[in-house]
Amino acid sequence: MNKWQLLVLTSSRFNILPLTSTCNLRCIFCSHHQNPPGVEAIFISPLSLKEIEELFGYLDPARPIVIGESATRIVEGEPLTHPEFFTIMRSLRRRFPHTLVEITTNGVLLDKPQVEALKGLKPIEVKISLNSVTSGGRQKLLGAGGAAGILKAIEELTRGGIPCHGSIVAYPKVVGWDDLEKTIYALVQAGALTVRIFIPGFTHRAPAILRFDPWGFRQELESFLENFRQEVKIPIIVEPPFLRDLIPEVAGVLPGYPAEGSGLKRGDVLLEIDGQVPRSRVEAFRLLSRPGRHKLKVRRPGQELREAGRELEILLEVPLGGKSGVVMEWDGDPEVLKAIHRSCLRHQARKAVVFTSELAHRVMEGMVSALPGVAKVIPVRNRFFGGSIACAGLLTVEDFLASWEELRKKGEDPDLLLLPGRAFDFRGRDLVERHYTELAQVSGLPVEIL
Question: Domain named Radical SAM core: which ranges (predicted)?
Fold first, then answer.
């Protein structure tokens, strides 16, 4: 796949508009520095206005347009370093006058003129990757100076009607827990609507300073954050989530949005939405994203699931073109279950194996339990990247082949192998250009991508 094809894929599949791989920081946790040999990270110089406007044609105006993120091998850069950033934004706004644009930035270049320019380009949401608020912490993590200007920009954007969200890659091992505490409070006080705390991933090539026990750290982090969640109104979310069930529990509500006014609270479990029982957090979120008045049946923490008279009924009205303000963690998409069912029917399979990531293992088991005796879920360890990498998007054919070999040695006898779609591009190739059909050749079984 050449560079232009990758740019088109990024825009058409993920609704991401790539601008540049140029960055003005030197983050010690930048994932591209830890890639094993064979993984080609694509660096793009600032694209021309003509190239970017050509990519407009691959964007879906019914979905938010994302700038400053990457879902492919393209190295994500700092979008505000592009010399024609605001020319691009004005052109984008002319093409899509009503589509929400989500901009992820480290905020270093957000001075007053840029903030004022953004106010004239709404609807926009800005996601600030702050990571540390202290000068010492920022120097250690990012090779950068203070954050006073960034916090001021968040305040000004918020006053100007542009929602801002903050994010932190949590490295208390490097900067200390007090640094993380100060950074969370700074984002809350500046007016961030949410704070996302990322547990950093590291590969087997990471230096010792970036390595830690991922499961032990997650527990320590969740315990640390519980105090904040009691004190502040805004949602504080840990990503990636490590979920073990499909219970549609509310992770938080955005202040000033309909969900807060309706009385919904963090920890509420959505039992019914307009008479429909949501099968997962994802399905519940989608149901609540529809405009109109929704009648909810809710169980609040401490109440028994079916205890008579203890369920709450809540009315939630979502305006046309607006958001409910409900924050949910991503678990399982019921559409994946439908795809599994269709594949099993197509191949008349009764012993299908669904390969999945270690992170999604429990959630997928919960989904597949709706197909008893038809499919079995197998978590695949990431041997290629190693370290703490446990997501589906970084699994390779090498990893699936190793898991198949383990199954074979155990005497398992499946009749269909199903693979996560996130591990492959539209050609069916993984990050090192190996095709998923290698697994079919080795196993002698039908193999499909979900």
Answer: 9-241
Residue 308 pLDDT exceeds 50: no
**Boundary (domain end) residue, out of 327, 344, 366:** 327
What is the maximum alpha-carbon separation in the chain? 66
Band of pLDDT at residue 309, cut at 50, 70 and 90: very low
H or E stretch covering 282: helix 281-288
Please provide residue 233's backbone torsions phi and psi, each rounded to the nearest 5 degrees: -85, -30
Q: Given 284, 303, 327, which residue is the final one in a domain?
A: 327
Whether 88 is covered by a domain: the verdict is yes
What is the dihedral angle through the alpha carbons of 92, 95, 100, 101, rounded to the nearest 10 degrees?
A: -10
- Domain of residue 421 covers 334-449
DSSP conformational letter for 28: T
Separation between Cα atoms, residue 212 and residue 278, nearest integer Å: 36
User: Which residues contact residue 323 at a Cβ distance below 8 angstroms, ignoring those fewer than 6 apart?
Assistant: 254, 257, 258, 289
At 339-356, the pLDDT tens digits run 999 999 999 999 999 999
